[in-house]
Write a structure and sequence with these properties.
Layout: H1 11-17, H2 19-27, E1 31-32, E2 37-38, H3 47-51, E3 55-60, H4 62-78, E4 83-87, H5 88-91, E5 102-108, H6 114-125, E6 129-134, H7 140-144, E7 148-150, H8 163-183, H9 188-219, E8 228-233, H10 238-252, E9 255-260, E10 277-282, H11 288-300, E11 304-310, E12 323-326, H12 334-352
Parallel strand pairs: 3-4, 3-5, 5-6, 6-7, 8-9, 8-10, 10-11, 11-12
Antiparallel strand pairs: 1-2
The structure holds 2-deoxy-2-amino glucitol-6-phosphate.
GO molecular function: carbohydrate derivative binding; glutamine-fructose-6-phosphate transaminase (isomerizing) activity
Active site: 365 (for fru-6p isomerization activity)
Enzyme class: transferase
Length: 370
């Protein structure tokens, strides 16, 4: 049966608005907020095997790869395990340094992506332990892995992944907390608080969705006809810049690129002129001042800035009139919050350009051939 759009114009919009639920459903029952304990019984690997893990490969494609890039920051910070992030089509053919103390973690909405599947098969053959983070129950990857952490985002119909991505972030944060518990790398109370922040992020997303959608709806009038778009961010939000650019490319066919803000001066700043929109993710985080310096360089070259930053940061209005404010959350959960405006901007621009948002040209929901 055809899934319904529940009054929304597109599945993509419906799925963007289902993100608070996707977070809640993914986290439910997996953190005990009294004890700070994380439980992931679906991981059938023994705790001893997991505790012995010395290195992690995160393997994925597209949007799922962006979730992996965020998770590297989390796992290295809280579980103190070195992480490498690979695009699956590269991972499957390069030489790998794998043994039974290496964990390969595949991230996939569908669980059927050909390159990711080939990647875990190869890693397993070389002796790696394999876990998947997956949204489709019983999919091929979940059957082959030593354990699955399901994202409970519900069926995702839009070709452009939205709620599956947010659920992947939630699952990866949970998994980070789980590793920190096995490794005793952070105090219990710290883990409990981080778990609470993750749970709270669902409510924050719920509250900001309608407000931000309305604001972006008017803002895009002066941007929707542009030919190119840059997205920039630092740290944990650099992958969110990549994700924003991918969303815009996929559904609006505008050429877009995501960059680490500090990397602009090494080339892409040559592109900046009065016709180049640049969406910059500028929360009040530990790299805020550094990002602002990069933004000033864009402004000095007349780039058309859209800033997404923290409520109350009046500094941003002095730089550009196009500012989107988001509530302050724990710095490490900013990727969940800052993804929302990037998704909505892409959605509204694509609709304004008359594009087929749910079924963009040349794309399939899951790429099951190489
Ligand atoms: C996302 O908007 C894309 N349509 C695409 O990049 C997707 O994330 C990629 O093909 C990976 O799919 P998977 O998560 O099902 O493995």
């Amino acid at each position: 049966a055809m899934a319904e759009k529940a009054g929304y114009k597109h599945f993509m919009l419906k799925e963007i608005f289902e993100q608070p639920q996707a977070i809640t459903n993914t986290v439910r029952g997996r953190i005990n907020l009294e004890t700070g304990e994380v439980v992931l019984p679906e991981i059938t690997l023994g705790e001893e095997d997991l505790r012995a893990i010395e290195r992690i490969y995160l393997v994925a494609c597209g949007t799922s790869w962006h979730a992996a890039l965020v998770a590297k920051y989390w796992i290295e910070k809280y579980a103190a395990i070195p992480v490498e992030v690979d695009i699956a089509s590269e991972f499957r053919y390069r030489s790998l340094l794998v043994n039974e103390r290496v964990l390969t973690l595949a991230i996939s909405q569908s669980g059927e992506t050909a390159d990711t599947l080939a990647g875990i098969r190869r890693a397993a053959r070389l002796g790696s332990k394999v876990i998947t983070i997956c949204n489709v129950v019983g999919s091929t990857m979940t059957r082959e892995a030593d354990g699955t952490i399901y994202t409970h985002a519900g069926p995702e119909i839009g070709v452009a992944s939205t709620k599956a991505f947010i659920a992947q972030l939630a699952a990866l944060f949970l998994f980070t907390l789980y590793l920190s518990q096995l490794k005793r790398s952070i105090p219990v109370e710290h883990r409990r608080r981080l778990g609470q922040h993750l749970i709270d992020s669902a409510r924050v997303v719920q509250e900001l969705l309608p407000k931000i959608r309305e604001q972006i709806g008017t803002m895009i009038e002066s941007f929707y006809q542009c030919r190119d778009f840059l997205f920039v961010g630092r740290g944990l939000n650099y992958p969110i810049a990549l994700e924003g650019a991918l969303k815009l490319k996929e559904i609006s066919y505008i050429h877009a690129e995501g960059y680490a803000a500090g990397e602009l001066k090494h080339g892409p700043i040559a592109l900046i002129d009065k016709d180049m929109p640049v969406l910059a993710i500028t929360p009040k985080d530990s790299v805020y001042q550094k990002t602002i310096s990069n933004i000033e360089e864009i402004k000095a070259r007349q780039g058309r800035l859209i800033l997404i930053g923290t409520e109350g940061d009046t500094q941003l209005e002095k730089i550009t009139e196009d500012v989107i404010y988001l509530p302050a959350v724990h710095e490490d959960l900013n990727p969940i919050i800052y993804t929302i405006p990037a998704q909505l901007l892409s959605y509204e621009i694509a609709v304004r350009r008359g594009c087929d948002v749910d079924q963009p040209r040349n794309l399939a929901k899951s790429v099951t051939v190489e």
